[in-house]
């Protein structure tokens, strides 16, 4: 008997009247993590100048202190959870910011190419297009079907699209609309064989899958902690291979320019550091609940939801288990259409009439429900969605 399911809602601030199948979108931090964040804020407000100017980052006023900067201590704790060293990891607000740092630091020249996939996240692809158009470079998009069943198809598609002008490959670890878990380590191996740098967008990965950052073999890796790792918004990590750290700059330049990777990213103007400083407490809670148990529960129920909903709706779910983390994308019956406007309409109906929150992707010919499973969900939530769609 699992201890997870609806009773776990007590640990989250979520409205119990809503069937929340959308944990992947903006996360939902547990109450205990929010309390830790509030305690940090309270401590900051006792002596704000002291905390933010003397204790927070490597750039500080006053005489040098023996204690490490608070952000470095938090970074080391978070890094250890993901098999990394603190000095190779910085906090950024979100995956979008991390991606912008990487893209805007690239030494591109006219004719260079950035490879993205059709499964990529729109905001990140936008950032690639923006940088490319400033430098006379090109964005090449390799088409990968959201209905892809096996990891080998993804490896072959990306490998076939790498070319002599490719200066960067951007590959999602867990794609957004399609929810597909992609074989990034294998793709990284192919990139390395051709000396092509790879940036992995792992926005959904930390907490959702077991993650050893250096083992992936990427050059840069960004991951949100505010989705599946239970940290408060806005918390993401950017891991960078040591040889590339000196050339990387945050999208907003501040006091730390050219003073080293962590110094530069840790102080980007005045900001509220409480979400980042609370991140270790989020990972501690995840470990307390059992990070493996949480992942296994979410994965198993997500996969079960994929098969069960497709059966209920008379559609097809053929994604292999190897491509599922804690979300699945299930095609909806053809009568719902396939456009973005039809997706938006159905999403509203589900929320405002059925009290079910989930992401719906428009695949053009079809809509697909992206069902995200967190420990507060159980099969009854999945069936509630199944029935709500079936009766429409
Ligand atoms: C694959 C992917 N990349 C990037 C992002 C952007 O994350 P954020 O809004 O935290 O920057 C998301 C958000 O869902 C995503 O799914």
Order of SSEs: EHHHHEHEHEHEHEHEEHHHEHEEEH
Uncertain segments of ≥5 residues (pLDDT<50)? Answer: none
- Indicate the radius of gyration in whole angstroms: 21 Å
Instruction: Give me the secondary-structure category.
Output: alpha/beta
Major sheet: 7 strands, mixed
N-to-C terminal Cα separation, in Å?
Answer: 34 Å
Taking all residues together, what is the mean pLDDT? 97
Strand content: 5-15%
* Strand order within the widest beta sheet: 2-8-7-6-5-3-4
Shape: globular
Write structural notes for this entry.
With 392 residues, the chain is an alpha/beta fold. It has 14 helices and twelve strands. Strands 2-8-7-6-5-3-4 form a seven-stranded mixed sheet, with helices on both faces. Helix 9 (213-216) links the parallel strand 6 (198-201) and strand 7 (220-224). Helix 2 (31-46) crosses helix 3 and helix 5 packs parallel to helix 6. The relative contact order is 0.16. Pyridoxal-5'-phosphate binds next to helix 5 and helix 6.
Question: Can you tag this structure with a few keywords?
Answer:
single chain; 392 residues; alpha/beta; seven-stranded mixed beta sheet; three-stranded antiparallel beta sheet; 12 strands; binds pyridoxal-5'-phosphate
Summarize the entry for a quick read.
By secondary structure, the protein is an alpha/beta fold. It contains 14 helices and twelve strands. 41% of the residues lie in helices and 14% in strands.
Q: Can you lay out the helices and strands and say which pair or pack?
A:
Elements lengths: L18 E2 L2 H4 L4 H16 L1 H8 L14 H12 L7 E4 L2 H10 L8 E5 L4 H14 L2 E5 L8 H11 L4 E7 L11 H10 L4 E4 L11 H4 L3 E5 L11 E5 L20 H6 L7 H16 L1 H23 L13 E5 L8 H13 L3 E2 L1 E4 L4 E6 L6 H12 L2
Helix pairs in contact: 2-3, 2-11, 4-11, 5-6, 7-8, 11-12, 12-14
The site of pyridoxal-5'-phosphate (PLP) has 13 residues, from helix 5 and helix 6.
